[in-house]
Amino acid sequence: DKGGWSSFMAKEVSEEPEAVANTIRGRVRDGQVVVPELDGMDALFADISRIIVIACGTAAYAGAVGKYALEQWTRIPVDVELAHEFRYRDPVIGPDTLVVSISQSGETMDTLMAVKYARERGARTLSICNTQGATIPRESDAIVYTHAGPEVAVASTKAFVAQITALYLLALHVARVRGTVSSAEGEQHVRELEAVPEKISQILDREQARIEEFAGWMADTRSVLFLGRHVGYPIALEGALKLKEISYIHAEGFAAGELKHGPIALIEPGQPVFVIVPSPRESALIHSKVVSNIQEIRARGARVIAIAEEGDAAVLPFADEVLRIPLAGPLMEPLLAVVPLHIFAMGLATAKGLDVDQPRNLAKSVTVE
Ligand code: F6R
After folding, report:
1. For a tag site, which of 14, 172, 224, 353 has the least CB within 10 Å?
2. Nearest Cα residue to atom 9 of ligand 1
3. What are the backbone angles phi and psi of residue 306, rounded to the nearest 5°?
4. Which residue's CA lies nearest to atom 11 of ligand 1?
């Protein structure tokens, strides 16, 4: 039931705040993250020396965002790999390896086969999944469910923000067990994560209509580029994937630092480029580097659509559009910056008269390898 929305995707984007809030619920005790499903597994988390995150598509981009938090908070090295690449390259894994799979459906065959392979090789397996009782969690040693609610539209939206949330909860849980984050810091991160749903709601309230309007003007666009750096990089990839999936427009995401190593050759007058601008409060250095990327592409005629936090005036002289996201704590920006990109992809596909829920050639759950 679309509950009055024009599509399941529109409904599911509107549910992004609850997807985050419901995933956090019940997993915070006295200001610290305690995931009840991971009770009794402290020894497991104390023993591991590596984490490998495996997933496909949007879930893999959630994993790529989660890597920053997992490494920063747990100090355990993390690799993120596409599930279908992982098992065909004789990976170095064993009992000290925790393989974290991420899947909305819990039925993706590529991911399932990778989990089985990891188990056969002696690794520990933990599944982040949105579907109760699905195959992947049943094949895993531990489960952390995302509580995004059923996702019907083929393109994943609310599950993505729930997956990042679950990874942050996992990171804080493991960090507490290993003592790598103090309780004061842990409490601070929890507060910042708990503030995210309200901030997503603000973006939906303030920017959705405007984004849909300019997506409408761009219905004839043939190519859109997305740039991001640090945690903004996987968000750029997610923005590009969503656009190609539902609007059939060529779209590519790049690490902003790669521009001068090749992609800048693509910039010609009128080329739309979304740039996810990191918070200047988090790192003035990274922020200034991305602002100079914007200047470089603007000088070559790009049409720049910046996603920047409120009050960041440095982007104003160089951006054609600025989409604002509220100020948030460190590492929380991806949960906000992705929202305008989901709205944009949906707005553009709608403007082209396409069925946003059922894009051509795609299935919600990919149960073949
Ligand atoms: C993108 C999308 C796909 C899925 C991927 C993994 O919008 O929906 O890229 O994210 O097929 O699916 P799950 O999470 O069910 O394993």
Report:
1. 353
2. 57
3. -95, 140
4. 57
The burial class, CB within 10 Å (0-12 / 13-18 / 19+), for 180 is middle
Instruction: Please tell me whether residue 140 adopts helix, strand or coil conformation.
Output: coil
Cβ-count burial 113-144 (b if 16+ within 10 Å, e if not): bbbbbbbebebbbbbbbbbeebbbbebbebbb
What is the best residue among 108, 237, 358 to mutate for testing ligand 1's pocket, by most ligand atoms within 8 Å of CB?
108
Q: Which of 2, 116, 244, 364 is catalytic?
A: 364
Going from the Cα of 145 to the center of ligand 1, the distance in angstroms, rounded, reads 16
Instruction: Please give the chain's pLDDT, 369 residues, in tens.
Output: 898 999 999 999 999 999 999 999 999 999 999 999 999 999 989 999 999 999 999 999 999 999 999 999 999 999 999 999 999 889 999 999 999 999 999 999 999 999 999 999 999 999 999 999 999 999 999 999 999 999 999 999 999 999 999 999 999 999 999 999 999 999 999 999 999 999 999 999 999 999 999 999 999 999 999 999 999 999 999 999 999 999 999 999 999 999 999 999 999 999 999 999 999 998 999 999 999 999 999 999 999 999 999 999 999 999 999 999 999 988 999 999 999 999 999 999 999 999 999 988 898 888 888
Give the single-character DSSP code of 77: -
Indicate the pTM of the whole model.
0.98
**Element housing 158 (H / E):** helix 158-178
Determine whether 364 is an active site residue: yes
For ligand 1, the distance from its centroid to the CA atom of residue 293, given in whole angstroms, is: 30
Q: Which residues line ligand 1 (CB under 6 A)?
A: 56-59, 103-105, 108, 111, 155-156, 241-242, 245, 365-366
Atom number in ligand 1 closest to CA 154: 8
- The CA 87 to ligand 1 mean position distance, Å, reads 18
How would you class 206 by CB atoms within 10 Å of its CB: exposed for 0-12, middle for 13-18, buried for 19 or more? middle
